[in-house]
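User: Fold this; tokens only.

Assistant: Input:
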Amino acid sequence: MTDAFFAQLREDYSPRRKYLIGVSGGRDSVMLLHALHQAGFKSLVVCHLNHALRGRASGQDAAFVKRLAQRLTYQYESQRVDVKASAKTNKVSIEVAARQARHDFFAKVAKAQKCRRLFLAHHADDQVETVLINLFRGSGLRGLAGMRASAMHTIEGVEVEFLRPLLELWRADIDEYLEQYEIVYREDASNESHFALRNRIRHRLLPEIEQVFERDVRGAVQRMAKMAGAENAALEAVIEASHPGLSAKNADLPVATLRSLPEALQARVIRQWLNNNGIPGTGFREVEAIRSLVPLGSQVAKINLPQKKCARRRQGRIFIDLA
């Protein structure tokens, strides 16, 4: 796998460019860092967020990643965030708070380093778990597509491109690579607990599904994600071709144009518009609420959104404003 994988990395991403890379210290991100180094990537900025969730072990993770970055002669950026306190303050789950803290950290480093390209170590097993999470949350086609190999995210006004070179590799492939190169990494005991939703899917739901179907279903879920991703991209291209810039950042949504679209495309445009304008955590409820501004004779003129923002309809246009 290795020579072909190194060649694929060099083909997909220029080793001469500067990149950020998120490194937790665990097996996946350490494997990716090692592979990029072996493939000749010289200008990496190793980014580590200490979530302060595992006591002394969290600090030891940070120290491990720092030593690793120094040994490979890469820049190192880190930050400590009390994720548990943040979750309590914002009344969200620890998983949501941790994700938001990571994104905020990556955006901060991207701005400081003047580099908007970020490598992440999500792999095929992560993709399967993500698709199942989205499925049971009632996601549409976009959610069933899971994570993209390349995706733009707007975080606190900063655009960052998330790059995921490992999406075609399974956890077993990563373990084989680590064993081949005798790579040391940090074990996170929380990955084996059933506290987090993703862990419950990994350790309980997937084995149960595979027992029912009497086969490994992960490949089928991965194929579905690929098909959904292709169809999702095709629909986005159709919308952009017929209505260029309709859901662009800082653009208002013309009500008359939305009204002319089928309901499914209305929802797609609104969801993309919210994403492009950096509104996190939006789903079916928020999209359908904004769609209530569209019909003729609608008496609704304001919809509350996350981050103390709202969507307003005025003079035939929908725009984002402070609540």
